[in-house]
Amino acid sequence: MANTELDPTVRVRFCPSPTGNPHVGLVRTALFNWAFARHHGGKLVFRIEDTDAARDSEDSYHQLLEAMRWLGFDWDEGPEVGGPHEPYRQSQRMDIYADVATKLLVAGKAYHCYCSTVELDARREAARAAGKASGYDGHCRDLTTDQVEVYRQEGREPIVRFRMPDHTIAFDDLVRGKLSFEPENVPDYGIVRANGAPLYTLVNPVDDALMGITHVLRGEDLLSSTPRQIALYAALAEIGVGDGSTPRFGHLPYVMGEGNKKLSKRDPQASLNLYRERGFLPEGLLNYLALLGWSLSEDQDRFSMEEFVAAFDIAKVNANPARFDLKKCESINGDHLRLLDPAEFVRRLVPYLQAPGLLPAEPTAEQLDLLAKVAPLTQERMVVLSEIVNMAGFLFVDPADFTVDPEDAAKVLTADARPVLAASIQALTELADFTPEPIQAALREALVEGLGIKPKFAFTPLRVAVTGRRVSPPLFESMELLGRAETLRRLTAALELTPQA
Ligand code: GLU
Ligand code: ZN
After folding, report:
1. pTM for the complete prediction?
2. Which CATH class is domain 401-497?
3. What is the architecture, at CATH level 2, of domain 93-252?
4. What is the mean pLDDT of residues 352-374?
């Protein structure tokens, strides 16, 4: 698909705060920004909003970077790649924010607010009781020098509050269309704490202005901060911070989780690490996340990132909340798994066998060969890579550690299974050629014809005995890969497990 909408002036940003583990909501935001930048041939700025020392952590910062790399995103400016607006970690830009705050104060765009929390709460309660707007009431907007002196004498430490204009703020949201906010609903707000620490409300728009961001694509939860930021932009333009333009905003729909509740970052279902551990492919997970608010076409759910980038249009994002459907996510991932060529599929499986110790850090050529043989038998049957552990673990486990799933054993390795196991042991011991076809023929003859058991019932005990569970790769191939000696040993061990009738 040709990219017909090149606009290299596009500059978007992905600017997470490094708190906790990366979550899927964050990934969806990164994805849409990345796709928007790549679609237009513009730039993606990766900025770390780590001004909240109490909540931010270095560990979380490294996780973010690692997650972005794993997902396959590239960025044009930011950590590790640098750029003209360095540094890209807000914790290293504190002098910039202090300077801007001072300029805003000097220009009268912001003011010191001396109200204590107790006073603010009391006035808010009173306003609420009187049925009035309960945001900040403008108490400190125009304090006289005498009043300020009194507050200082009392030892009060002021915060810096931004002075909102008293007119309607309207903008055309790229996703939601025209929106407008009345001044009584957007009161003056704090931009610097009493201890001098700048807040998100200041640093985010200041950096967007300084870094020349043209489009802000972010979650709907941030919609209420947009009128404030638009007003701040106008003030920044007046004091000469940035180039004077205001970005276009596009608010991405909420993602709803279980029980139709907003998927929160604390939701275990939202943790990116969980998806990595379960063995989602980055391309599968991203394909699914792209569908949260967007679609390629009615009849095509699976697509590559190239297709997504080529087709992505922010104007086509749906404003309605999107539902996170794990089953759908898995099924799309399964589709991507099946697209992998055999060697690549094997390469991706290795870490999932290493995690539980079924493969060593440096697998031998023999082990890789065995994996290459069993992998095609599983590729059609999995939705996530970690399923390889249950499906093919029986081939890699140390024979001394091999156990049968207790539940499956209880159900299947009953007294009825004894003759089946005994006849199979005999048939397979005598078999000349231990390959799938002859194995199947010999077992059919012994069990279906010999004992008169239906194939469905005949082979289940064998499957459980040999692979440890009822769900496994095809039985006869599994036996071949395991080898005759070990197959017989496991059948014998299972026979010993079964109760005498
Ligand atoms: N650091 C903010 C957050 O993670 C960024 C919000 C924005 O995109 O403006 O919520
Ligand atoms: Zn005040």
Report:
1. 0.93
2. mainly alpha
3. Alpha-Beta Complex (3.90)
4. 98
